[in-house]
Amino acid sequence: MGRMPKWADAVLVPLLSLIIAFVISGLVILAIGEDPVEALKIMVTGALGSTYGWGYTLYYATNFIFTGLAVAIAFHAGLFNIGGEGQATLGGLGVAVACLMLPWPHWSLALLASVVLSAAFGAAWAAAPAWLQAKRGSHIVITTIMFNFIAAALLNYLLVNVMRPRGQMDPASARFPAETNLPDLHQMLGWFGIPFAKGTPANVSLFVALIACVAVWAIIWRTRLGYEIRSFGKSEKAAIYAGISPVRITMYAMLISGALSGLMAVNTVQGEANRLLLNSVEGAGFIGIAVALMGRSHPVGVFFAALLFGFLYQGGAELALWTKIPRELITVIQALVILFTGALDDMVRVPLKRLFLASGRGGQ
Amino acid sequence: MGGADISGRQSSAAPFAIELRGISKAFGPVQANKDISIQVAKGSIHGIIGENGAGKSTLMSILYGFYKADAGEIVIDGKVTPIPDSQSAIRAGIGMVFQHFKLVQNFTVLENVILGAEEGGILARSLARARKVLADLAREYELDVDPDALIEDLSVGHQQRVEILKALYRQADILILDEPTGVLTPAEADHLFRILKGLRDQGKTIILITHKLREIMETTDTVSVMRRGTMVATVRTAETSPEELAELMVGRKVLLQVEKAPATPGKTVLEVENLRVRDTQGVERLKGINLTIRAGEILGIAGVAGNGQSELLEVLGGIARGIGTIRLNGRELDLTGRHSDGQSRRADGIAHVPEDRQVLGLIMDFTAWENVAFGYHHAPEYQKSALLMDNDAIRADCEKKMATFDVRPPIPTLAAKNFSGGNQQKIVVAREIERNPDLLLVGQPTRGVDIGAIEFIHKQIVALRDAGKAVLLVSVELDEIMSLADRIAVMFDGRIMGERLPDQTNERELGLLMAGVSGEAA
């Protein structure tokens, strides 16, 4: 053929980028006098070597799937939603309201309520920047990032002044009723007799995330809305020619994006903490950008990229626990992965393309 | 093989001004130039003609140092001269006038001419020298331009002269012009050709790239025809005919004249009254347009690009907003509110083949089948349920349309950007015409489209007319308007200067109207 096949673009490019990132990370570890092979071993066994490790890796991955999908769907509309942090923060508020609002008889009903409210709260938080972009032309990158700060301040205020139970010192909501606690993987797999480590945070939200992957795929490639979103994202002028309203598409894409970010809170707030804390998002909104970039804005890609970042999070924590490698270096490794898979992936793609071209010509 | 053994106007002993020997260039699997050889005699005008994608632009880019040829050599004045970059091309005496001018809009003519050719850090000296050179050139070649005028104040024709002056100031002996008349009025084009002939008579060598057969016939001494990357023939212009050249370009016999019966107009379909449109900067682009189109009639809008034709299409097609009255089949259309978008217009029975298919008409990254639904993605036959689209149905429809309109290759899953210009346009035309609209808006239907496809697209437009539909045709190609339209309205500066019947007017009269000379004076 001579053209780069699709699989190479989807698999080979990120894989090579990842290898480069790891090699450079290894050099950095070497430079501070530690053994990179040993470090990798600790990361792999710590994150993937046991069901306990998997429990954490999947927990983190669940967060990143949600935020990654959120960024991805906005990308399809040509919008750069970097407000995942704020939208997930508000999603947490939605979860808290859902869990504390009514005495739920069963976790499944509580889950349903928190899914609806977290999505609604997240979407509402994305609505304002979306409207400003659609109607006033205020750049969505600026407004969404500002809304992150507003969200953090708002949550701070609410936790300190409104939601904090009388007599409690830390800024957090009341503990959710036990009925709202979501089953973790230990419990769930236990129903089928599959052994899984106890006490890990991975919970039923993982399956919500997987459903979200399928739903996003269907929206983007099977619905009229998705068709309009993709058209608008590729060419606003052509979209207007086709009678697609930029205002409508900007709003819808951002509402869906915000809802997906908000859903992340089901995993962290209801699935793990069981109460609303300050900063429960922990940067997952930003990791979502890297996940969407690496996953090429495709739900399958987002899933695998989220898994990788889950591995980096959990493996990094293990590394800090068992070696003298400082915690900051974990951030360096994560940054290198983001740099190479997200920002610099043309560095690999372009030479690879040439290689395929050359081999194609040779083969003719 | 590029059998080029014609020596133009000179004896074969003299070295050619420029000679290409066995130039080949491939982009991946696409062989853009295959073993191209040409010899251009000193002091001659040599035309290069070919369909879009025939490899003309690639060849010229190699000559100007933008691309490196995979094989072959360039010989200038008998010396093998490698041209790795445009600086070497300039040093070798080659000047290029691009289709899209490369001028700094808010610089004066003089400043643009010396840009990149300044001598030293003090501009005053180079400016003074350039002023003198420009005055000489103006006298010698009819190349008058005010050296102190700002580019943005100049007409397109004058801007083009500045491009030519830039090349001459850099002492170009070989001047390459790429589709130079696309943006000119007929009068401006005639003036350009007079300049080119003057330059030739002074010993300059000119290579003219165009797809317009008439220009080749009128101005060139020799002409080379390219087809699919190869040079299929080089002939003396005096010994050939437009029909022969067209056949060489396409590889089969081509009908140059549109065959159509006289129109039998029926009831009025479109009425436009006092239509005004402002652009985003608040500049009025349509200054009170009045026109009507009847069923079974093609109204052609002639005019130099940028005189409001695009805005007219955009308002009618639901892309831009305006004030005034538009009635379709007697019903007034919404020009500003909720029902002024493209979806409403389509529902009203207006289909639109936009002027720029790559920017408006198609999403280049989408597949052909996705593009076939573009704008009609609400159509009931494309839906599976309230939410889901029926992608299989769209693909099947795409296959059908590709077969009817002979789109090549007939692969619905191929991205639009991977089709040639003509086939892209066929996809757009198929999508719009197959909706059987009451009114078809067509902008530049054959821009960048190869001759074979032009013939086909013209036939489709005439067929729609014969089926009793109204057609509004906007084109900057006067030939196209003259042969296709049943009635011609000429636009200038946001107004309609006059209406003519094609068999009762001529290019000169239309050209005057296009230049803003009012109907009475013309």
Automatic annotation (TrEMBL), chain A:
It is found in: Cell membrane. InterPro entries: ABC_transp_permease. GO terms for molecular function: transmembrane transporter activity. Pfam families: BPD_transp_2. It is a multi-pass membrane protein. The chain crosses the membrane at residues 12-33, 53-75, 87-104, 110-128, 140-160, 202-220, 240-264, 276-295, 302-323, 329-348. Its main location: membrane. Signal peptide: none annotated. This is Nucleoside ABC transporter membrane protein. It comes from Gemmobacter caeni. The lineage of its organism: Bacteria, Pseudomonadati, Pseudomonadota, Alphaproteobacteria, Rhodobacterales.
From TrEMBL, chain B:
It comes from Gemmobacter caeni. GO terms for cellular component: plasma membrane. Keywords: ATP-binding, Cell membrane, Membrane, Nucleotide-binding, Repeat, Sugar transport, Translocase, Transport. Pfam families: ABC_tran. The keyword Nucleotide-binding applies. One of its GO terms (molecular function) is ATP hydrolysis activity. Belongs to the ABC transporter superfamily. This is Nucleoside ABC transporter ATP-binding protein.
